[in-house]
Amino acid sequence: MLGPGILYAAMAVGVSHLVQSTRAGAVYGLAMATFIVVIVIVKYPGLCFGAQYTAATGKSLPENYLEQGWWAAALYLGSTLFGMWFALAAITLTTAGLVLSVAGLQMDALPVSGGLLAVTAALLIAGRYQWLESLSKLLVLLLALLVIVATALALPRVTWQAERFVLSEFDAAAALFVVAMVGWMPTPMEGALLTSVWTRSRQEDRGLNVSAQASRFDFNVGYVVALVLALGFLVLGVAVMYEPGINPENSPGGFTSQVIRLFTETMGGWAFYIIGACALAAMFTTLLAAMDGFPRQFVYVLQHVRRKDTPGWVYPVLIAVYGAGAYAVMATLMTSFTQLINFATSLGFVTAPIFAVLNHRAMFSGEVPAEYAPGSVLKIWSFAGIVLLTVASLAYFYFLLLYA
Question: Based on CB atoms within 10 Å of each CB, which residue in 13, 168, 266, 372 is the most buried?
Fold first, then answer.
């Protein structure tokens, strides 16, 4: 029964968890756990509609966007084409920095990033959806076990008091940090598009129809895994940086290297292998899923526009173009690791209301059969999420203008 939901967890547990959740715990302590839980609840309807819509109709969400009107297609294509390069660049650079840190190498992260993109592209082109799902299931299982062990080791070093879960001062810096953290927590709202196209690919690959119950169960498992692991990484940041009063570093490998070093110093030399493997599994699953997801979307977009199947060579070409574009972003625009991560994640935050509205319109359209249609509770929940995300985006722009 598990497939796209596990891919969703694989995509989620990357930059947002390893970097942003850990940094949140390191800078603000347990107080950021509240924001993580709240945003995961708010985003749930918009994100879960991706797999449910495709299971109900057999069509992907990108195809529905094209049918909603030129304005929906323009918003989707504009935000996706602009943001996807920065997203993959941020993920790849973080993974490269981690590889250098674990291997103990002193070299520039850019050539390592290029090598990672090439290896990931080759795996996806060779194995397509089957390899993607199989590798992700294995890595997510490994990751979950490792994070649980690492968090259990860190728990005794955290001060557990009720007041620690409340942010003592919510100033502009804290507000902008929250935006950067929750923009990709547990994923950007575009994550619904990826679960949608993965659900359709699984249907085509295995020739099966997914029931409404199976689709919800699959996604919910992945969503809960993503939340639990986010809180686990936050606890690690609290234990090894916040409690001792250590400031996070700012470089592609510096921050992840610092986390691994501090965890090893705190727990003992043997813990290096646990936290190192944990971090590598987290980032490689995300890189694998992210590099597949966006090209797969455009395969279905082209298929919908052409009204016939897309030739087999299109997917490998899109993978290559996507990887080359991300490499170009890293080579020309990356001046600060933190700035790149914050820009990519903040972009996911401000576009969240757009995708939430489009996903809501798709799920409550007349083409969704009654047995797949969400109930009144989820409908109200979705409306409330759209309002909250819109208000939060407006507040973000207010802070930017006020403190620019």
Answer: 13
